[in-house]
UniProtKB/TrEMBL annotation:
Neural cell adhesion molecule involved in the dynamics of cell adhesion and in the generation of transmembrane signals at tyrosine kinase receptors. During brain development, critical in multiple processes, including neuronal migration, axonal growth and fasciculation, and synaptogenesis. In the mature brain, plays a role in the dynamics of neuronal structure and function, including synaptic plasticity. PANTHER family: NEUROFASCIN (PTHR44170:SF12), PROTEIN SIDEKICK (PTHR44170). This is Neural cell adhesion molecule L1. One of its GO terms (molecular function) is cell-cell adhesion mediator activity. The keyword Repeat applies. It comes from Scleropages formosus. The keyword DNA repair does not apply. Keywords: Cell adhesion, Cell membrane, Cell projection, Disulfide bond, Glycoprotein, Immunoglobulin domain, Membrane, Repeat, Signal, Transmembrane, Transmembrane helix. One of its GO terms (biological process) is brain development. Residues 43-131, 145-232, 266-354, 359-446, 457-539, 543-630 form the Ig-like domain. Residues 1-26 form the signal peptide. Interacts with SHTN1; the interaction occurs in axonal growth cones. Interacts with isoform 2 of BSG. Residues 1185-1203 have a biased composition (Basic and acidic residues).
Length: 1276
């Protein structure tokens, strides 16, 4: 028998080895619904309840068991190993097409009666699948046993354990400790709760005494909390506990310092002894606990003998008293040591940990689908501690007792199948178990036979791009596995090899598709059960390419950017062109323009910056190209200005650069404002290179500065930064000399000494004044001086033109400044007493002559010689009848020497002149010299007075002119030159001469399109005069319009301006350029304009001055005049015009209506007032105080009418000063009752009300009150 057993084992090993050499491959069934619908399959459990299944007794019980298979499985249950007849129990139902049980207790019954072990069986014609064995238990939450707890009395410093002992529940409850105020018991290193729920005191303090230590148990399933009777803890102390004593600040671990409590070495409260052991299962978490007693409170430390704690899985809790290791594995076995120590001593406890393992899978058996005559195997490998045993079952029965199958062989944990046959499908179960648990796995073996089927669409059309690798899919299925072949155009041998490759899944690869590869491809699949084919049509298309890609652009904000994207593609494919910005879809709004080959962005903004991508796509391929748009703009203002390193005359200014907006900052302009001399006015201080951000500013004394910085790049200046903090420099004496010192006479016998006052930044201190000193030159006099706050001082009785030495210095409250150099000044000049003699002329020409004279004695000039001044005038023309202008003109000569002379120019030819000469100093002219007469010679004539060219008919031109206004001699005739003009080509010059009495000429044209240029001049004996040039007019007797631009107007706003102009260019196709210059730094920018005015010029700086012109894009020489304008300062939206507010308008309407009503009442009372007839009321008794008039009427007056009016003024004699206002203008006649019912009190009351209204409105809107001020007297 032993020999036979050894032979059987040897044969099994040989069989397993042979099977390993064979190819074992299960059939992968496609998920195609058509295949799955026809696929017969044994049952598979897909859903089941937990092995350890605890249910809530308040709910119905649901035990899940779901399975799939074809045909649909039927279900059967076992309870406690016996058949469970579901139909006999009215409380139990099974769901349709499912094995899930529902146990209902609506009509009574106890859930506890259904506790036990349940197992589900799912069966169809091909086998039976089993669920796990599910242990059903009902959750329990028992009450806490009633007990009387005696008070716990303990000495201070002793250890204590308050036991919890919660009632056993299913599952076990969570425990926690609270007091009577429902607040958790405070826990720390000294006081903490153990894993068993007990409350441990390492040592007791006097403050622990309380009557409400209560343990609570929370039951999760029932969501209830049960409370144990509270403990009363009494602490016996030798000294009273004082929480505010001086030693309360000592470390809490040494709370007994200063008290007579003995210190003790540590001892363990749990676990007891020096060693213990613990077993834990693999995959669970392990909790080790050590709680020690002692005074002071011991600290806990953990170690592992022979190794280190696994830091990735280890976590200490409960103030280091608990060691938690997650997901324990075999390597976590070993000896763990906890050590408790305080300053008195230490103690250790060793815990031996042994890790066991319930079975776990190494290789779980998988479903096996085989074709007839194929081989296969099922493997079930599991591990555990101790090692689990393996048991095979077939359809829920042990394999040993199942029907024998010759194609099946069991070898330990493996079942080997050889040459399987149809009808041997079954479900196999593998059960791996040891003392800690079990594993159960179902795996079916399905023997499948099926004729070939095509799974893909019929007659599919595939489009591919030329030269691309192409795959033609032909998904198929069959059992046994069919053989697949490909053919092209229905003929030839199968395709495989070369540029073709056929994959196992039926796909045909064409490595590089060409135009000749187009056609119809057929795939054929066949096995022993049949044959099937499918066709695929292939079309090869031209690739899509971008032939002109967008290029990187760098543009200025406000200008135009355009990206190109020209495409070449297969015309048989629809094309889509999309643009993205920074990989996000680009919304083509009204501002962006997209056409077939480009994207245009007008008026570029900062937000337009980014990477633009043009993507061209068809259904087969796509191409894309990207380009970066960089927007240049003025830089952002600098920020975070700081002042440091202060000194008397300097301070360091530091700032942070703002964004340069893609244009490097080239310069920083530092400005300052001071609040003493010119508050609110910002002035330039200094400029610095753009790479600096910290500079030392040179400052003036006695100035309260604040600074701001402006960044400048190639586009322009930034907005100013926020001002820096103020910096006050100390005062000092002036350090500059007053400039422009001079002394000169302004009146007879005086000399005014003047100089330029120091600038505000040069004063250096308060109370600036000047000390001016003077003395007469070369007279050995002492210096005289005076102190003044003005910039001049007048010296009287200084003589006539006397030289003086003068000097000046500035001083302030801090002292005097440097003294100026000595300057020579002169007192006032007198009138010259002599005239030049021997005045004569020579070398007389047509327009000039030489003048000669004898110099005067210098002493007669009475001052500094300024010039010899000639007074001359044209007395008459040598031509009779020509009227002349006899205006006297002057010309000065500075000639010196014994025989001075000069040339008198700009004379009119052929005229009689007179002249005389005077000597001139800086204040006066002297007496005239003798009068000299002379005649100028004949010259060339002036230009003709007018020259007109008219075109009377299409074949002639008529010319008219008039003699010059200044003939400058005797006219002898006119010369007319003319030539043809055709664009830039001109003809030969022709000439005509005319006598002086001929002033017109008619020229016949060779054809109507001929144009001429005419040149006309008059002649004297001297020669021809200035030429008058004209062009011949166009056809129809109208002159050709000269292109021009005029009437340029600008309406500025804060950051833009509306610009308009007029022109006579063609309206279609004319382009203009707006050129504007920022005056602050001379930056010039140009904006092209392709549409007609008006236009909006954007991107301007608030509050800046500009110069603007418009010129033609085609003819730069044709330009408008320059126009200067200034943009408005930034408008604050918070400013509201009160006159436009609804409440104000309503208030004004209410006031007007009230005044109108009061006036109507006043007029009605007035018309009824005065004297009222009472004849019709004779029967009424009269009051004794009533006063009767002669006409039988009574004057109704109130006593109050005789009293002073409220607000009236009383004179010195006690009489009331009445108002000057009169109501005559409002009455019906010439007189008014002096005391009408609408009396002064009424009127003055209305005036006072109107005044109050006006005062209120004045506080809100001054312009609105103006109208009310003029309206009030009318209404009142």
């Amino acid at each position: 028998m032993q020999s036979w057993g050894r032979q059987e084992g040897l044969l099994a090993a040989i069989s397993l080895l042979l099977l390993a050499w064979e190819e074992v491959c299960t059939i992968e069934v496609p998920l195609d619904p058509r295949i799955q619908q026809d696929l017969k399959q044994p049952p598979t459990i897909i859903k089941q309840s937990l092995k350890d299944y605890i249910v809530d007794p308040r709910d119905n019980i649901i035990i899940e068991c779901e399975a799939k298979g074809n045909p649909v499985p039927t279900f059967m249950w076992r309870r406690n190993g016996k058949f469970f007849n579901v139909g006999k129990d009215p409380r139990v139902t099974m769901r349709k097409r499912s094995g899930t049980l529902e146990i209902s207790f609506r009509n009574g019954g106890r859930p506890e009666d259904y506790e036990g072990e349940y197992q589900c069986f799912a069966s169809n014609n091909f086998g039976t699948a089993l669920s796990n064995k599910m242990l059903l238990r009902v959750s329990k939450s028992p009450l806490w046993p009633k007990e009387v707890l005696e008070p716990v009395v303990i000495n201070e410093g002793a250890p204590l354990v308050l036991a919890c002992n919660p009632p056993p529940g299913l599952p076990p409850p969570n425990t926690f400790w609270m007091n009577s105020a429902m607040l958790p018991i405070s826990q720390d290193e000294r006081v903490s709760m153990g894993l068993n729920g007990d409350l441990y005191f390492s040592n007791v303090l006097a403050k622990d005494a309380a009557t409400d230590y209560s343990c609570n148990a929370r039951f999760l399933f029932t969501h209830t909390i049960q409370q144990k009777n509270p403990f009363t803890l009494k602490v016996l102390t030798k000294e009273p506990y004082n929480d505010t004593s001086s030693f309360s600040s000592v470390n809490h671990t040494d709370s007994y310092s200063g008290r007579s409590v003995p210190e003790t070495t540590p001892t363990f409260l749990t676990p007891t002894g020096t060693t213990s052991s613990k077993m834990v299962l693999r995959g669970e978490q392990m909790l080790l606990e050590c709680i020690a007693a002692g005074v002071p409170t011991p600290r806990i430390h953990w170690f592992k003998k022979g190794g280190e704690l696994p830091t990735q899985k280890v976590k200490t809790e409960n103030y280091n008293k608990t060691l938690r290791i997650m997901s324990v594995s075999e390597e976590d076995s070993g000896e763990y040591v906890c050590r408790a120590n305080n300053k008195i001593g230490s103690i250790s406890h060793s815990i031996s940990v042994q890790v066991k393992a319930a079975p776990y899978w190494l290789e779980k058996p998988q479903n096996l689908i085989l074709a007839p005559d194929e081989n296969g195997r099922l493997v079930c490998r599991a591990n555990g501690n101790p090692k689990p045993s393996i048991q095979w079952l077939v359809n829920g029965e042990p394999i040993e007792s199942a029907v024998q199958n010759p194609s099946r062989q069991v070898v330990d944990d493996t079942i080997i199948f050889r040459a399987v046959q149809t009808g041997s499908s079954a479900v196999y179960q593998c059960n791996a178990s040891n003392e800690h648990g079990y594993l159960l796995a179902n795996a079916f073996v399905n023997i499948l036979d099926m004729a070939p089927r095509m799974l893909g669409p019929k007659n599919q059309l595939i489009k591919v791009i030329e030269n691309n690798r192409t795959f033609l899919d032909c998904p198929y299925f069959g059992s046994p596995m069919p053989e697949l072949r490909w053919f092209k155009n229905g003929q030839g041998s199968s395709l495989d090899g070369g540029q073709y490759r056929v994959y196992l899944n039926g796909t045909l690869e064409i490595k590089r598709a060409r135009t000749e590869d187009q056609g119809t491809y057929t795939c054929v699949a066949s096995n022993i059960l049949g044959r099937v084919d499918n066709q695929v049509r292939l079309e090869v298309k031209e690739p899509t390419r971008i032939v002109r890609a967008p290029e990187h652009l760098t543009v200025t904000r406000g200008s135009l950017a355009q990206f190109d994207c020209r495409v070449k593609y297969d015309v048989s494919l629809p094309i889509t062109v999309t643009w993205t910005k920074d990989d996000k879809p680009l919304s083509i709004s009204w501002r962006l323009k997209k056409d077939e080959d480009s994207l245009t962005i007008p008026n570029v903004l900062e937000s337009d910056e980014g990477t633009y991508t043009c993507t061209v796509s068809t259904e087969l391929d796509e191409d894309s190209a990207s380009a970066r748009l960089t927007v240049l703009d003025r830089p952002e203002p600098p920020r975070d200005l700081e002042l440091s390193d202060p000194s008397e005359r300097s301070v360091r200014l530091t700032w942070i650069h703002g964004n340069d907006n893609n244009s490097p900052i080239t310069e920083f302009q530092v400005q300052f404002e001071e609040n003493r001399f010119q508050p609110g006015r910002w002035q330039n201080l200094s400029s610095y290179p753009g790479d600096l951000n910290s500079v030392v500013l040179q400052l003036s004394p006695y100035v309260n500065y604040q600074f701001r910085v402006i960044a400048i790049n190639a586009i322009g200046p930034s907005r100013p930064s926020r001002p820096s903090p103020r910096y006050q420099t100390s005062g000092a004496p002036p350090d500059v000399v007053p400039r422009g010192l001079k002394g000169e006479g302004t009146k007879t016998n005086n000399m005014e000494i003047s100089w330029e006052p120091l600038l505000d930044m040069e004063k250096n201190g308060p109370n600036l004044r000047y000390i001016v000193s003077w003395r007469q030159k070369d007279m050995s006099q002492d210096w005289k001086n005076v102190t003044t706050t003005l910039a001049r001082h007048v010296i009287h009785n200084a003589g006539t033109y006397k030289p003086y030495e003068i000097k000046v210095l500035a001083l302030n409250d801090f002292g005097p400044g440097p003294e100026s150099s000595i300057v020579i000044g002169y007192s006032a000049e007198g009138r010259p007493t002599a005239a030049p003699t021997d005045v004569r002329v020579s070398k007389i020409d047509s327009t000039k002559t030489h003048v000669h004279w004898a110099p005067v004695d210098p002493n007669t000039i009475m001052g500094a010689l300024k010039e010899y001044r000639v007074h001359y005038w044209r007395e008459s023309s040598l031509l009779k009848g020509l009227r002349v202008n006899k205006e006297v003109k002057t010309k000065g000569f500075n000639a010196s020497g014994l025989q001075p002379s000069g040339i008198l120019t700009d004379l009119i030819p052929y005229s009689n002149y007179k002249m005389y000469m005077k000597i001139v100093n800086r204040r006066y002219e002297g007496p005239p010299s003798n009068t000299v007469e002379f005649q100028t010679k004949e010259g060339v004539p002036g230009v003709p007075k007018f020259f007109r060219i008219k075109r009377w008919r299409t074949d002639t031109i008529h010319l008219e002119w008039e003699k010059p206004e200044e003939p400058n001699g005797i006219l002898i005739g006119y010369t007319l030159k003319y030539q043809t003009v055709n664009g830039s080509q001109v003809g030969h010059i022709q000439m005509e001469n005319f006598p002086p009495n001929v002033t017109q000429f008619t020229l016949r044209l060779p054809d109507r399109s001929t144009h001429y240029k005419f040149f006309l001049s008059a002649r004297t004996q001297v020669g021809a005069g200035e030429v008058y040039a004209e062009d011949s007019p166009h056809f129809a007797n109208e002159a050709a319009p000269r292109r021009q631009i005029w009437n340029l107007t600008v309406e500025p706003n804060s950051n833009y301006a509306d610009v308009s102009w007029k022109h006579n260019f063609p309206t279609n196709g004319s382009e203009f350029v707006l050129e504007f210059t920022l005056k602050s730094n001379g930056t010039v920018r140009s904006v092209p304009v392709k549409h007609q005015p008006p236009i909006k010029l954007a991107g301007l700086i608030e509050g800046a001055r500009y110069q603007l012109r418009v010129y033609s894009h085609e003819h730069h020489g044709i330009s408008s005049e320059y126009v200067d304008f200034e943009t408005l300062a930034a408008y604050s939206k918070d400013q509201v015009d009160i006159a436009t507010q609804g409440w104000f308008i309503g208030l004004m309407c209410a006031v007007a209506l009230l005044v109108l009503i009061l006036l109507i009442v006043c007029f009605i009372k007035r018309s009824r007032g005065g004297k009222y007839p009472v004849r019709d009321k004779k029967d009424l008794p009269l009051d004794a105080v009533d006063q009767k008039d002669q006409d039988g009427s009574f004057d109704y007056r109130s006593d109050e009418d005789n009293k002073p009016l409220q607000g009236s003024q009383t004179s010195l004699d006690g009489n009331v000063k009445e108002s000057d206002d009169s109501l005559v203008d409002y009455g019906d006649g010439d007189s008014v009752n002096p005391h009408p019912p609408c009396n002064r009190g009424f009127i003055l009351g209305r005036i006072q009300m109107a005044a109050d209204v006006e005062k209120f409105l004045f506080l809100n809107s001054k312009p609105a009150v103006e109208g009310l001020r003029y309206m009030t007297p009318k209404f009142l």
